[in-house]
Amino acid sequence: MTENYLELNHVSKVFQRRTGDIVKGLEDITLSIKQGEIIAIIGTNGAGKSTLFNTLTGYIEPDEGSILLNNTDITKIPQIKRASIVARVFQNPSMGTAPRMSVFENLMLASKRGKKRGLSLSLNAENKAEMAEYISQFNLDLEKRLDLPIEYLSGGQRQTISLVMATIQKPQLLLLDEHTSALDPRTAKQVMEMTHKMVTENNLTTLMITHHMQDAIKYGDRIVVLHQGKIANVYSKEEISSLEIGHLHELMEKLVEIEANAS
Ligand SMILES: Nc1ncnc2c1ncn2[C@@H]1O[C@H](COP(=O)(O)OP(=O)(O)OP(=O)(O)O)[C@@H](O)[C@H]1O
Question: Where is the ABC transporter domain (predicted)?
Answer without folding.
Answer: 6-253
